[in-house]
Amino acid sequence: MIPVRLSLCASALACALTLSACGSDAPTAEPVEPIADSTAAVPAVPQMATASLKTADGRDVGMVTATEMEDGINISVSATGLEPGDRGIHVHATGKCDGPKFETAGGHWNPVGTKHGLSNPQGAHSGDMPNLTVASDGTGKMEYMIRDAGLAEMLDADGAALVIHAEADDQMTDPAGDSGDRMACGVFGRN
């Protein structure tokens, strides 16, 4: 008798489960949104450095931003209060801008020991850039990508500076393209 009862109980349970699956009026649960993974990679904030450009007499003449990008360092220059014309502009190897001649900024940033000038087949220095054109109102803007370089390399133990020269750079003559005196300088500092 006990086996029949167990068999009937098992049959009743199976029927109840089947019926509850077919005719249930109970609300169905909404799909659960997955919880965001807090360890997921967050886009990196670009590394940046800025330099305030000053003349030998301390006059503010602009700002430079160096932003590390995937393919190099983007240099963005905004200058004011300069004499109109083309001006040599370079990243210099030392982060010092003592006037009046800014010689403390050292030579052009040149970590691989090349010759000077964007047109030089044996160049160019990493710090070489096209000339900055200053308009008749004394303003000049430019953007330039220093390829295959990083801020950590540029801002090494002795830092780096940006220098604007009095004359145009001929992009060939060592060591500075005959670009004349250094008329403005700014030391890069990390942001």
Give keywords.
Immunoglobulin-like, alpha+beta, globular, 10 strands, three-stranded antiparallel sheet, 191 residues
Provide a compact summary of the structure.
This protein is 13% helix and 29% strand.
How many structural domains? 1
Helix content: 10-25%
| Overall SS class | alpha+beta
CATH superfamily: Superoxide dismutase, copper/zinc binding domain
**Count of helical segments?**
2
Biggest beta-sheet profile:
5 strands, antiparallel
Mean pLDDT: 85
Anisotropy-based shape? globular
Strand order of the largest sheet: 7-3-2-1-10
Kindly estimate the percentage of residues that lie in beta strands according to DSSP: 25-35%
Elements, N to C (H/E) = HEEEEEEEHEEE
Which spans have pLDDT < 50 for at least 5 consecutive residues?
Answer: 1-24
Tell me the number of strands.
Answer: 10
User: What's the CATH first level?
Assistant: Mainly Beta
Instruction: From the alpha carbons, calculate the radius of gyration and give it in angstroms.
Output: 33 Å
Q: What is the third-level CATH name, the topology?
A: Immunoglobulin-like
- What's the CATH architecture? Sandwich
